[in-house]
Amino acid sequence: MSAALLVQAAALPPLTQPVIGGVAIAYFVVVAIIGTWAARRTRNASDFFVAGQGIGLFTLAIAAMAATLSGFAFIGGPGLVYTVGIGAVFIVLPAALTNSMGAWVMAKRLRLLADVREMMTIPDAIGARYQSRLAQGLSAVAIIIAVIGYMATNILALGLVIDAIFAPGLGASIWIGTVIVLAYSVSGGILAGIYNDVFQGTLMALASGFVFWYALEAGGGLGQISRTLLEAEPATLGPWGTLTPLAALSFYFVFGLGSLGQPHVVHKFFMLRDARRLKWFPLLMTAALFVSLLLFIGVGLAMKALVVSGATPALATADDATPAFLLRFTPVPLAAVVFASVAAAIMSTVNSFMSIGAAAFTHDLPVAFGTRMANELKWGRIWTVVIALVAAVVAQASGALVAFLGIFGWGLFASTLVPALAIGLNWTGATRAGAIASIATGLVITLSLETLAFLKVFSFPSGVTASAIALVASLLVFFGVSWLTRATAAATLAPDVRAVMEA
Amino acid sequence: MSAPRTVRDTAFRTLVLGVIGIALAYASAFFPPSIAFIGPWLMAIMVPLVLFATMILGAVRGTRGLGRLALPFLLVFVLVAGGFVVALLLPAEAADVRLFLGLPPRAAVILYGVGLLPLFMLPMVYALTFDTLTLTDEDIARVRAARLPGSVPTGSHE
Question: C-alpha angle A281/A286/A287, rounded to 5°?
Fold first, then answer.
């Protein structure tokens, strides 16, 4: 099982209907209004990159949920369930633990760090933890590489959705999508992104809940769906679907532990107005994520049962599962809201990537070289444009190239940031050398293994992925090098950071 | 060394052990089936072990142990790791198998046991213990008192 399955790069069926187009336009108008409002409130780099540390609990939870889910949760995910059955659920199954784990391991530490230092980026936190400009710079490089690839993939996916709804051609759709996200990201920065995330996340959750109900209804209930699948394709309902147990459990590991290293999500902890509001964060985030993921599981299983029972024609590709289900089994207005939600999910993810990518160029790389930009707000906006344009140009390239770039995003974030950041903020024995070595290991192993696999120089046994190997290797290097240099551990910790880690 | 330090040390050592176990599980996939069969079993135990050890590292406080968190952590670990092991142990179902809440037994173990049952358990535990075990006003005051001279906290720009 390859991470390439997580990349949305196939065309959707045509959706050119007046209601769908109308809802999509209404959705874009709301996004523009929020962007304009946020632009007026963006006065400095702190507003642009961390929303002036002024957001509340509900906003944080919904925005984190929206940034976590890309269009994959609505299109590629149900398609994967359709293809491999229950095995695909192992991508989202760790959500039962990850929100609470993130709160205990990351949220409190990052938010308290922002109380003692100026924290605008995740590399800022790494730099402060190890008093190391090199560690901060290296993590910024990892973020930049992953962001460009991730953004190209998501912008292509956004182009595919816009092309399916309005049919202006894929090339033009990619630019239209880029300009829309760019407009509110450049003017309002993360502030616009956060409040758009709240709107988009609410839309995603509502749409997912309704579609799940329709999926059960269309399939005759979960019991009938199971009976149909057990007779026609029993492997689909095995505990690992059609995957090997190792592959399914590997998903659980990479998406479980890897969730702690997703900078576009954990970066939002800096933005919370009051650290004590974290109390209800896991519950709210879990509830929002749970409802938003119902579609992921429900549509994939229901559509499979409907196809194997002959109730609906076979799909051209697995990614047609959601569009075909919506067009055949739900009222058009609901289908229209879901397609707007797909665009919403993609746009909220792209905006978050733009923000952390621009911050890496504007803030982290100069800091790594011992300097600061004079006007970080202005340069933040310039880099946001540059990153978006580069990603849009890449998205115009071949699907295979875009897929390749998108594949290693999650794995690169996980292997470079989980050890140094998530473990490092909770283990005083971690050292600067250990952090630098683990970030470098994650970078080198992820990029080299993914490239060699892409070029078909070799293939892994089922269940083994480059992302998993890189994550395990960077963790082991982190532990090993920190142990070898343990005499320096105490000197690595500044007193204020130690206070944060002991709180 | 005091008891709370022991909890932290134990969690860290468990984390290292778990990561090594996961590395061995992946390595086993490169060997013939007589060795490769051990991979899923290792993953079923070691992956939950790594996730819970990490969670404990985050939850344990400098001068305290896990306290009231210990039991829910243990319970959820048993649910997750036990669910994976049961799914590995149970035989494949026949088409007329009895369904549990609409799913065949092994899928029900995964979706309901590993996915759904723990879903709101840990968030509720987090919320209910937050004021005493996670973050108090005194903790925040102590952290702010440790602020270095001249440092500018986030969001304080105008």
Answer: 105
